[in-house]
Design a protein that fits this description.
alpha+beta; Alpha-Beta Plaits; single chain; flat; 4-stranded antiparallel sheet
Length: about 120
């Protein structure tokens, strides 16, 4: 079965940000290598990289009028989505736990991919 892994960065700096650049280079390289290794795990599809949450626009329609506000819908925005093929939800959770964000102040939401229509 396929699962979507929605990665919430949490308090750890987003790669490319000023806060990220303030982290010692050795730590940045180690973390980047860890993500690269995760992306090579069997059954993992890396998906598309997201831009910074503050670059997002949240769109809604109220009384027939389009409203767009700056920023992500939730304060702790999803920073990436990965897909994983796993035999069970428990197996998908084991894979999700290997994502560095899960231990660095963020979280990973695991959702089964299902058709509703």
């Amino acid at each position: 079965m396929k699962y979507a892994l929605l990665i919430y960065r949490g308090s750890y700096p987003q790669a490319g940000s000023e806060a990220w650049n303030a982290i010692p280079e050795e730590e940045r390289k180690a973390l980047s290598a860890e993500y690269a290794a995760f992306n090579k795990l069997p059954g993992v599809d890396t998906g598309l990289p997201f831009g910074m949450p503050e670059e997002a626009r949240t769109v809604s329609v109220r009384d027939g009028r389009i409203q767009a506000r700056e920023g992500a819908y939730f304060p702790e925005a999803v920073t990436s989505i990965k897909m994983v093929e796993a035999d069970s939800l428990e197996a998908a959770i084991e894979v999700a736990a290997k994502i560095p964000a899960a231990r660095l102040g963020g979280a990973v939401e695991v959702r089964p991919i299902q058709r509703y229509w």
